[in-house]
Amino acid sequence: MTPIEFDNFQVAKMKNELMKAEIHIDSEAFVDEIVRRVTKALKPRTIVGKSDEEALYTVESLAKFLEVSPQWVYARVQFNEIPHFKVGKLCRFRKVEINRWLDSHKVPAVNPLSKTMRMTK
């Protein structure tokens, strides 16, 4: 079997064709995926503030975080049931204080393997 010899032009042409064959991607889907990943990576940094201690929520961002309506948040503010402060007429919430507030409203878990549960098995 004799080896096949190629000149530089043929080698370059084959490399170019090989690269084209390997790079068949949907550029729009590729860009969309990059945007999705960058957005996901930046999302924690979109809350106003530089660190968790300085981070602030607006009524809308807090409502989204708590998965409630903005009206629910305003009702808690009206009755001083949630820690907040005002910037002019605008309500703001410190992330650290909201996390403490949430911790203070924890409902203790019931031990799923209590004696009565073991006896019924």
Give your account of this protein's structure:
With 121 residues, the chain is mainly α. The protein has a three-stranded antiparallel sheet with strand order 1-3-2. The model has no long low-confidence stretch (mean pLDDT 80). It has a domain at 47-104: Arc Repressor Mutant, subunit A. The chain is elongated and about 85 Å long. The protein contains six helices and three strands; from the N terminus they run H-H-E-H-H-E-E-H-H.
List strands and helices in order, with pairings.
Layout: H1 8-22, H2 27-42, E1 56-57, H3 59-66, H4 70-78, E2 85-87, E3 90-94, H5 95-104, H6 115-120
Antiparallel strand pairs: 1-3, 2-3
Helix pairs in contact: 3-4
Q: What is the general shape?
A: elongated
Trace the largest sheet across and list its strands.
1-3-2
Query: Beta-sheet strand percentage?
Result: 5-15%
Mean pLDDT: 80
**Uncertain residue ranges:** none
CATH architecture of the domain at 47-104: Orthogonal Bundle
- Please give the share of residues in helix: 40-55%
Topology order in helix (H) and strand (E) letters: HHEHHEEHH
CA radius of gyration is 29 Å
Largest sheet: 3 strands, antiparallel
Whole-Å distance between the termini?
Answer: 75 Å
The count of helical stretches stands at 6
Count all strands and give the number: 3
Please, what is the oligomeric state?
single chain
Helix- and strand-based class? mainly alpha
Level-1 CATH class name of the domain at 47-104: Mainly Alpha
Short description, anyone?
The chain is mainly α. The protein has helices spanning about 10-20, 25-40, 60-65, 70-80, 95-105, 115-120, and strands at about 55, 85, 90-95. A hairpin with a 2-residue loop joins strand 2 and strand 3 (about 90-95).
